[in-house]
Amino acid sequence: MFEIVREEPYEFVPPVESPLWCWIVRTFRLRGYMRDVYRVETFDYRGSQHLQDSLDRGAGILLAANHSRLADPMAMGFLSGDLGTELYAMASWHLFMEGWWQRFLIRRMGAFSVYREGVDRQAVNQAIDILVENKRPLLIFPEGAVSRHCDILMEFMDGPGFIARQASKRREKAGKGPVVIHPVAIRYSFDGDVDKAVASDLEAMEKSFSWQPQTHLPTHQRLRKIGEALLTLKEVEYLGAAVEGEPHQRALDLIATTLRRIEQKWGVANGDKDLGYLNVVARVKKIRTVVLPDLIAKKVPPAEREDRWRDLATCYYLQQIAHYPRGYITGQNDLPERVIETVERMVEDYQDRASYHGPLHCTIEVGEPIEVSAERDRSAETDPAMALAAERIQAMLDGLAAERRTKLFGEKKN
């Protein structure tokens, strides 16, 4: 959390158009980096012709992809190289603040910053200009955060739809072709011994609770016990006591109760009619936009600074808790990549370290283009084009997951 949320003034970081650096990185470094760091070794692409057709017709192209792993932007770099085009990509500002070399490199790979803790007009204008000029496709991850579950899509943020619509309006006035959104599904699969792969991480977490390693239990039961222990720790921390009941409902109640308390404390209206899903990412962003500015401006005394950071840390962990979907691991024909994802999320949340398991295979499927209207449909609760993109991404993910089940278990259904 402390690497993502920074207590310093934001400055927009523009991209640097450098086909040479893109070629150098993709040719000599990217594949080894993906293998050594993220354990992603092989790739295949589907539907590339849909994107090629849009490139050939000169459309302004927005690639809207799901975001389950930090490796996703680099994986998309292989797709763009396969098509002979480079990408621009909207990336969280904190990524540009992790050393001069990373900042230097990702700018030349086409990335520009976006400030996730407020309205970043420069980033929005940069994105609109890219779509209007259509030199390269623009890659955005509309979920707004890394989910760590590649089979279930989170709600989309509002920004990408606004960007596409404004660019479409400008292109229409200039007599240019349309802006199109290509939904992109990114999915990873693991074909190794999943129980062996996660054993050391599970044992490390169990020992941190002063438990004996629960090796007598199957992996899914160990995961459930660890998950309940982590949830109980957060209940005691945020509510003062553990709560009984079904774990997933307990997690939803913990998030709802604690977010409401923080929103009321800082005068933040959540605007959320349905607290079943909670829309945690958007609500956490609103809280940060209220809590952070005075911290950055150094306008708060030490005691209040500590209190604000405590609330920011709480919001971060609530968002992480929300990323554990109900029924993702059941113990009955669990897909191995789902087990991997869940363990990696637990290690990240509880031990604050990255743990990657492989080898992984990455499949990228590009959907058909969705033409973006220049006019806003004020009767729609969400942007129609982005809603359709989300629907198609989820359908593609469902199809890829069904293929995996058929391959592993001979099932014909998802």
From TrEMBL:
Pfam family, one: Acyltransferase
EC category name: transferase
Domain named Phospholipid/glycerol acyltransferase: residues: 61-189
Pathway: Lipid metabolism
Ribonucleoprotein is among the record's keywords: no
Any GO MF annotation of the entry: 1-acylglycerol-3-phosphate O-acyltransferase activity
Keywords assigned by UniProt, alphabetized: Acyltransferase, Transferase
GO biological process: phosphatidic acid biosynthetic process
EC number: 2.3.1.-
SUPFAM superfamilies: Glycerol-3-phosphate (1)-acyltransferase
PANTHER family: 1-ACYL-SN-GLYCEROL-3-PHOSPHATE ACYLTRANSFERASE
Protein name, UniProt field: 1-acyl-sn-glycerol-3-phosphate acyltransferase
Gene name of the encoded protein: plsC_1
